[in-house]
Amino acid sequence: MRLCWVAIVLVALCTMPIAVSQRPSIIGLVVDVRGRPIEGVVVEVYRDGVYQASTTTYANGYFTVPLTTPGVYEVILYKKGFEKRVFRIQLRGGALSLGNVTLSYALEVIVEAASIVVQQGDVVAIPVQVRNRGAFAEEVSLAISVPPYWVAEVEDEKGLIVKRVVLPPGVQESYTLTVKVPRNASGSHEMTLALSYSGVSQKVSIHVEVVAREWNLIRLTYPSLVSFPGDLKRIPISLYNSLGEEAEMVIDVIAPEDWGVRVEADGEVVRSLVLEEGERRDLELRIRVPETTSPGRYEVRVMVRALDVVSEKKLMVEVVEGYDEVIVESGAPLVDALAGSTALIELVVMNEGTGSTTVSFDVSGLPLGYRWSLRDEAGNLVSAIHLPAGVSRKVMLAIEIPRGEVPRAVEFTLWAKGGRSEDSIRLGINVKGRPELRIRTLNWIIETFAGTPAKFEIEVENSGQVPISDLAVTVDSSNLPRGVDVKVEPPTVRLLPPGETVTFTLTVLTDPMLPPGRYYVPVSIAGSGVRSDRSLALEVRTRSEYFFLMIALMLVATATVALVARYWRGGWGRHSG
Predict the structure, then answer these.
(1) Strand ranges in 221-267 using DSSP code E only, listed in sequence order
(2) Which of 20, 384, 402, 527 could form a disulfide with 471 if both were Cys (CB 3.0 to 4.6 A apart)?
(3) What is the per-residue pLDDT for 13?
(4) What is the pLDDT of residues 495-551, one digit of tens each?
(5) For residues 179 and 191, is the Cβ–Cβ distance under 8 A?
(6) What is the rounded distance in angstroms from the CA atom of residue 338 to the CA atom of residue 336?
(7) Comparing C-alpha atoms, which of 537, 526, 412 is closest to residue 474?
(8) Which residues contact 304 (CB under 8 A, 6 or more apart)?
């Protein structure tokens, strides 16, 4: 029971200033901000600025300072690592209890924001004020606790990173807590700034809420579009590096099964590319909607991965049932052609409908013996072509005209048939007679002596059905043998009607020193629409060869005459006898 009363008295001493004895004194209990007793706190008492007495707190935080006389006193409490507190009291007599005296930590840390909201990839600067409220200079170590992959530093006013600092009493310094939030961070996080000094660990917590950032690495021109089965859509897109540093952009497109999708730049497929900070690149997203696609809404997702960021855009494609509308046109529906040749007519086939189709072709009205075929722009033989909606293609219609066809006008019809539509166009060919040459000269060999002009005649007949204009015989002088020259008369025949003939005379001039032998003269006979190339063989002999040949001929002739005379005389003698 006695112990209980003692406890009640001690509690009363700690909670209210009352006089417990006649001798003047000051008593109290010193605790930290958590309510724990602080040992070793210096308690000094002054009167009118003159030191009177002092003591230190016990392990249990209590202290007692005996004084001699009542009066007005100034009580100062301090300890390294804690703030310095000053009380002004009126002591009238007996013991005056200060009750529980709370000493905060020496450093007052003021953070402008205890809770912040940031975006992914943000670099946040948080002002921090630190003031030393204690009686001693404090050597402070600073540490920052952040979530994994976050980066945080404390910088002074000059931008220098601060790890340790000494703060004299009463001094206040300004710092900046710089925090780099990862680009893929999300949710709520806690960040702690810890200041360690004089055995004290003082912590300040900052709550950080990270919200998603729209990085806009990819930009779509159209968020939605309408398409038809079989369509090929080209959608402009662009990539933009908003990450603050060079990065490789990896592109991925996710589309419904069997859809053909790819990203291109200048016709080349692009799967990734490197962009500098702030650089933009324009690309094209190509989407091929299969012919078998049912009407409905479909989603195409375009994703770009760069560093630790994923940016995604969705493209909604509404597929509706389409129809074809085939149209066929020609810029030159009537052409001229020769008998035996192939007439070519260029056609443009268009699909002005909303759905792709296969277009087949047919020709009606061609005379017997005429044959037709179609070729695409690459020159391939085709019987049908595929036409997406809104697309036009060129095809070449080839009509083979019989060789013996007489001049006349031929009209016919070409049909272009799609899945649900068809179109036709009237075409025509103006068949002209075919020019032909017949070279009536058969022997193409000429003999001459070196230095003696020789003449050679070429007889040419117009065996065709139309007149031949500007008919001429030419000799390529660049391919003539050295020492040989040729003149042609007449140089040109202006018009040679069908069935008529003309004779060209070639005068061959040879150098007297030209060695004997066989030479070839290239000859071209050409007129409007016809040409024939021949080679004239030139046999060159010398005079000596001719002399010996003549002697040989004379000897043969003499021998022959002698034999005849002898035979005649013998026969005559027998007859006389």
Answers:
(1) 224-227, 232-240, 247-254, 260-265
(2) 527
(3) 42
(4) 999 889 999 999 999 999 999 999 999 999 999 889 999 999 999 987 655 555 566
(5) yes
(6) 7
(7) 526
(8) 217, 218, 239, 249, 250, 251, 252, 310, 311, 312
Name the CATH superfamily housing domain 437-544.
Immunoglobulins (2.60.40.10)
Tell me which DSSP letter residue 9 carries. Answer: H
CATH topology of domain 218-319: Immunoglobulin-like (2.60.40)
> 572: part of which helix (H) or strand (E)?
helix 543-576
Token pair for 370: 């005429």
Task: List alpha helices for 440-542, DSSP H.
Answer: none
pLDDT, tens digit, 9 for 90 and up, residues 144-188: 999 999 999 999 999 999 999 999 999 999 999 999 999 989 999
Residue 68's Cα: distance from chain center in Å? 94
Average pLDDT, the chain: 89
Q: Does the domain spanning 2-102 belong to CATH 2.60.40.10? A: yes
CATH superfamily membership of 326-432:
Immunoglobulins (2.60.40.10)
Instruction: Indicate the pLDDT class of residue 2, thresholds 50, 70 and 90.
Output: very low
DSSP string, 334-388: EEEEETTSEEEEEEEEEE-SSS-EEEEEEEE-PPTT-EEEEE-TTS-EESEEEE-
Whether 414 shows a pLDDT value over 50: the answer reads yes
Rg (CA), the chain: 59
- CB distance 352 to 390 below 8 Å: yes
Provide mean pLDDT across the span 201-208.
94
Q: How confident is the model at residue 7 (pLDDT cuts 50, 70, 90)?
A: very low
518 within 8 A of 539, measured Cβ to Cβ: yes
Tokens 């001459």, residue located: 448
Of the candidates 417, 327, 406, the residue with the CA atom closest to the CA atom of residue 364: 417
The backbone region for 140, taken as left when phi is positive above 0, alpha when psi lies in -120 to 50, beta otherwise, is: beta
Q: Where are the domains of the chain?
A: 2-102, 107-211, 218-319, 326-432, 437-544
- Topology alike, domains 326-432 and 437-544: yes
Alpha-carbon torsion (290, 292, 298, 304), positive or negative: negative
pTM of the model: 0.52
